């Protein structure tokens, strides 16, 4: 009897001492100012939020410069870098991709979402995209099988499909940010004005909305 008790106690202490994947220590991920973000691919750690971001046409890296990095920087400043993972979508983001209406990047976006959830089942996925990248988010819901079960919210900048739903996300979980005078999201034209390049100034607004939408 005593032997059984000792074995049970040893087993229990081992289980309790074993670190959970969800609780492993985070690798610092910077302040969000770089052209590339690979927190999911590098499997840095499990965080409260995982942002999957698709950059705009002709932007460099996998998250670009105009909308993504300022948004990530603000979110990390508000929550702490150890609570935010960011992963960029790997797709050409070229002019030819505009004709695909998001299909050029949506398979990779969906793949990154599923990879993130396979690594960290409790993280809350937020999809985000700028310009053509916003189309990628829409197409991922339409043609890649993503739903509100996997993606808890979406914030889109300069979206050519502004006003269209994002899959079965409720309106409370979808944030469209369209700068005044940005014809790409205000009208049906693909003519880019200087206003289409101003989304860095909406970074704090986007970050605050995400925190509120997820109840953090």
Strand segment tally: 5
Low-confidence stretches: 1-21
Please tell me the CATH architecture by its name.
3-Layer(aba) Sandwich
Radius of gyration: 19 Å
CATH topology category name: Rossmann fold
Sequence of strands across the biggest β-sheet: 2-1-3-4-5
Determine the CATH superfamily.
Answer: Alpha/Beta hydrolase fold, catalytic domain
Enzyme class: hydrolase
Signal peptide: 1-17
Disulfide bonds: 46-120, 178-185
Protein name: cutinase
What does this structure look like?
There is one protein chain. With 216 residues, this protein is an alpha/beta fold. It has one domain (25-213): Alpha/Beta hydrolase fold, catalytic domain (Rossmann fold, 3-Layer(aba) Sandwich). Helix content is 32%, strand content 13%. It has 6 helices and 5 strands. A 5-stranded parallel sheet has the order 2-1-3-4-5, with helices on both faces. β1 (49-54), α2 and β2 form a beta-alpha-beta unit. The protein is globular and about 40 Å long. The termini are far apart. One of its GO terms (biological process) is carbohydrate catabolic process. It holds the Pfam family Cutinase. The active site is at 131 (nucleophile), 182, 196 (proton donor/acceptor). Belongs to the cutinase family. InterPro entries: AB_hydrolase_fold (IPR029058), Cutinase/axe (IPR000675), Cutinase_monf (IPR011150).
